[in-house]
Amino acid sequence: MKKNDVFIIAAAVLLAAAVWLLTNGIRQKDSGGEVVVYKDGEVFYAGPIGTDTTITVEDELGNINVVLVKDGKAIMQKANCRDQICVNTRPAEKDGQAIICLPNKVSVEVRNTGTKDLDGVSE
Amino acid sequence: MMDHKKVKQMIFLAVMTSAAIIIHFIESLFPLPFALPGIKLGLSNTVSLIVLYIYGPVPAFAVLVIRVILTAFLYAGLSGVIFSLAGGLLSFSAAVLIWRLRDKGYGIVGASTAGGVFHNIGQILAAYVVLRTDAVFFYLPVLILSGAITGIVTGILAGILVPRLKNIYGPS
Fold this sequence. Notes:
Chain A is α+β, with helices and mostly antiparallel strands.
């Protein structure tokens, strides 16, 4: 290791800290927002997190994801993707938390309805 | 004859490419628990780094691109290619930048660290393009840190390997 390599490592740690502060600043800690389910980048479902419901996302390729909203939490109950990472993701309840199923291009997000200007979707 | 050197370089690059493919495959068997599916540590980029420090940026770039194309055909699939390409190209660019500063006190560990960090930034950007949701950026801090840690470890490894490989396979 040469001496200037330390600067690069320090820069990486600083960058991580800066991004962490930035993303945490946007994220609101309180709950009571809404659940938004995206499929292929488009809003598939949006509804309050307090209302218990089951959302089934299915496409013509046979990809299925079942999202369960219960007790103020959203979980990915079932998915036919190969890695099952989304099913094993912790429940999303706080604003900014998300469950993502990349193989099926489905994401579940919790966001605060009051902070739409900060947590808005691109485009 | 000049043919001897060319054959030596070709064999070295072929071996490095196959090593990158195998590392990439082994890596795909262990998905990161905290990350988005499809995101990898980028260990196979170490191979590009080793080639970069022995033969320079052009052969290293060739190894990277051939690795991405071959893994795409073998097992990764299209979404895997987007991730490999975004991570690989950004990581490679960062590593080349540090490699150019190798006479100014920046070593292979620095290049590897920068490469590791930008590998993961590239993958997050790819995930953003695929999913179109800001939520992917919440994974960024932990991925920058893990990229730096992976980069340091693989950089030390590459630092041990480069002089030895250079003796056997390097341009003489």
